[in-house]
TrEMBL record:
Keywords: Aminoacyl-tRNA synthetase, ATP-binding, Cytoplasm, Ligase, Nucleotide-binding, Protein biosynthesis. This is Histidine--tRNA ligase. Residues 32-323 form the Aminoacyl-transfer RNA synthetases class-II family profile domain. Signal peptide: none annotated. Its EC number is 6.1.1.21. It comes from the Bacteria. PANTHER family: HISTIDINE--TRNA LIGASE, MITOCHONDRIAL-RELATED (PTHR43707:SF1), HISTIDYL-TRNA SYNTHETASE (PTHR43707). NCBIfam families: hisS.
Length: 415
């Protein structure tokens, strides 16, 4: 088979909404992940891994056959055996499936966290890609409002550790227990039915299958109707009120600021009690940087026993975009310029000692010896160490300041 040498190698960017990463943004991406890994350990969340590919039924059941994700956005296809499989569009369903199929109920309440790639066929927007990446944290098997509060405190600390909490607001709502939600849903259906003739086509479709989602509508025809719809507060049972009060009391005690958003909803029936989003105006109209809620009915939907659970997810790309320019110091600790090939053995010994001592270090030992110092000086680093020969003996010169530079100099001079 002949090859067309003139043919261009296709790139991910040829598929709209995908990307390669190198340099600054790759460093930002890694910084978000590293910070997440550090903070999740502080809260005792175990690392969990679930497959990128799952049977389509896992997501169709969990996300709802009528949702946009399932009907329009999932990458689903038949494998050679005829089974329908899907590239995961989110983490929660796979983690819930693993909780049931692996017998992880024995570890309940189970606190787990993960991160990795997800896939959705959606219109690319700022910070949204068809292959994108998320952080995810879940608590399975706990019906305590303190689990909700802990997850929110975890999220709040993560955003603070990333340095992006300024201008980000935690918005919070309660969807009540099953009785509260059913009563509210009935009232909403009655309200929207009375205005059926003025609703958009999408909202008419949702009216029979997912009426709570009409409250989210951005269509100008729907907004006056949605804005005049009844709030859930009038339908909350005393138990649901107590649950929400315990969550907000936990946040207040931990010093986490929050705002009530009575219009924040989750459309699927397995959601209960707490729903939340951390929102910002720094990413345009799509302002959610982290969101989640309690989904006490999900595992039962997947065929497992009734199991309370709560969780959140956040887009890594979106968090990386919000990082300040100076939050990551990408400089090396040390660069070694070998100005005399006769001292390469010492330079290599110094390089090994620095790296073994926890210093990020590079060496410039190729090309013209006269140009190596200038070449090394162009590499961003806290310290520049030149290694050469003067008066027939080893000569080491160090340029740089700060604690890291001084510590590196001390280590090299001690060799």
């Amino acid at each position: 088979m002949s090859k067309d040498k003139s043919a261009k190698i296709p790139t991910p960017q040829a598929v709209r909404g995908t990307q390669d990463m190198l340099g600054d943004f790759a460093d930002r991406f890694a910084y978000v992940v590293e910070t997440f890994e550090r903070v999740r350990r502080l809260y005792g969340f175990k690392r969990v891994e679930v497959p990128v590919i799952e049977p389509t039924a896992v997501f169709a059941r969990s996300l709802g056959e009528t949702t946009d994700v399932v009907s329009k956005e999932m990458y689903s296809f038949e494998d050679r055996g005829g089974e329908s499989i899907t590239l995961r569009p989110e983490f929660t369903a796979g983690i819930a499936r693993a909780y049931v199929t692996n017998g992880w109920q024995q570890f309940a309440p189970l606190k787990v966290a993960t991160h990795g790639p997800l896939f959705r066929y959606e219109r690319p927007q700022k910070g949204r890609y068809r292959q994108f990446h998320q952080l995810d944290a879940e608590v399975l098997g706990s019906d305590s409002p303190l689990a909700d509060a802990e997850l929110l405190v975890f999220a709040d600390q993560l955003l603070k550790e990333l340095g992006i909490s300024e201008g980000v607001t935690l918005t919070l709502n309660t969807l009540g227990d099953a009785a509260s939600r059913d009563a509210w849903r009935a009232a909403l259906v009655e309200h929207f039915e009375a205005h059926r003739g003025n609703l958009s086509e999408d909202s008419l479709a949702r009216l029979d299958k997912n009426p709570l989602r009409i409250l989210d509508s951005k269509d100008p025809r729907d907004r006056p109707i949605a804005d005049s719809a009844p709030d859930i507060d009038a339908f909350l049972t005393s138990e649901a009120q107590d649950f929400f009060g315990a969550v907000t009391a936990g946040l207040d005690a931990a010093g986490v600021a929050w705002e009530r958003n009575a219009r924040l909803v989750r459309g699927l029936d397995y959601y209960r009690h707490t729903a939340f989003e951390f929102v910002t105006d720094r990413l345009g109209a799509q302002g959610t940087v982290l969101g989640g809620g309690r989904y006490d009915g999900l595992i039962e939907t997947l065929g497992g026993p009734p199991t309370p659970a709560v969780g959140w997810a956040a887009g890594i790309e979106r968090l990386a975009m919000l990082l300040a320019d100076d939050v990551i110091d990408t400089r090396l600790d040390t660069v070694i310029a070998v100005e005399d090939d006769g001292q390469i053995a010492f330079a290599m010994r110094a390089l090994a000692a620095l790296r073994n001592g926890g210093f990020a270090a590079e060496i410039v030992a190729s090309g013209s010896p006269r140009k190596r110092f200038d070449k090394a000086a162009k590499i961003p680093a806290h310290a520049l160490i030149s290694v050469g020969t003067r008066d027939g003996a080893l000569h080491v010169n160090v340029r740089g300041d700060g604690d890291r530079a001084k510590a590196a100099e001390g280590l090299v001079r001690a060799l």
